[in-house]
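FW: tagging you since you asked about this chain on Friday. Here's the raw sequence from the shared folder, copied in full. Didn't touch anything.
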Amino acid sequence: MTASSIVVQLGQCGTQLGHQLFETIYEDASLCPTGLPAFENEDYKSTSLETYFTETSKAQREAKSVMIDMEQKVVNQALQSATKDSNWSYPKGSQLCRKLGSGNNWSYGFQVHGPRCETTMLDLLHKEVEKCDRLSGFVVLMSLAGGTGSGLGSYVIQLLKDNFPNSVILNPTVVPFKAGEVAVQNYNAVFSLSSAFSDASGSILLKNDHLQNICSKSLLIDKISLSDLNEVASHQLASIFQPSADISNQTGTTSPYGNRDILFSIIKSSSCHSQYKLLNLRCLPHLAKKSVPFSTFTWSGLLRNMKQMLITNFFIDEGMNWQTRLHGGLPGSRVPFKSISNIVVLRGDGARTQSWNQLQDISDSRLYTSWLPETDRCRLWSVNRSFKSYEKSVSLLSNDSSSIEGLDLIVRKAWDMFSSKAYFHQYTKYGLEEEDFLNAYIKVDNVINSYRKLAVS
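HL: got it, structure written out here
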């Protein structure tokens, strides 16, 4: 039986990203690629739709979604867009809105909106859970920078852990631009990360700087919008959320879509535990639509590029230093980051015929921490069905020490603000104390140090 995944869309960022994710999943499931047996394609479609959508009595599809935002505008836009332009809709009454936002203040979202809305939020969550024959868990979409997404999002994750203790909580979270979006984004990010480390099963970091690079350098978009960033992020998430089969150490003889509990499979295969819950996501290819019909790819070429992206910590396959190697290379070349786990997902023609031997580059022991058993290093998931418009595509979900790149800068900036008590009163007036700041810094810093130790292990 396919396990259901409920998507919790929090704040403006989570609402918009979640809407695009449902669009991407539904569009992919509804495609009918040539060269695939009809029964296999139908199995893929039904597995996908059963995971993320509920079939109503009128044979229509409703997203398995709970939307929570303290302002109505973006939620209303998502509801109208789904009704007007999509072949699916949101369930009626599964949205919570208020007339006052959180003012980009984590404390207001967590300390004020959270307790006030707790009963209503739990009712919405239970209502959606009761529709599921078998629940895998929750995909909680939010931003680190804002107030509702980060503050109320942290509160919701805590609620989910307390009320659904046996369910997976996967937290794809958008990391703000390094250049800054709001003055207090670093405070909000530290509190959100601290909360996620305690309560979420794992967090996929979707960094705006990386998404923008993909838009500008790979997709060749001149004027990049939030919609463009969300489309790239949803493409990447769907590439690991859609049906596949784990064929690690096998020859492709299992059922085509063996991962029917996708959230549990992701957390189990990512080796997430208390100090290592941060995940990076890379995808190949990303191409401008006009270039796709004139492009061809091989599995060996895609995997070679993906390995180099992992070694050099790049998130696009252009501009990499190809002279960087696991050992040696040019003087001053970057030392590779160490991994705890990698999940490689192949989608497209011939994916299931790829053997484990062809992944030896990414399962190379030098890429992994020394104390990790060989059997836990790398998993291979595949499906012969093409994804979106790409004949062949590769995704890599990594739990590795590069995850902390940029987070130490966030912590340092937040600490500098805290040391001078900048904006401090805006948080304490809603119930936070100095000890709460210190505890959040300590928790995030401990996780960063744990990942740093991987690089020398």
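FW: The first strand starts at residue 4 and ends at 10.
HL: agreed, and The chain has a mean pLDDT of 89.
FW: great, closing this out.
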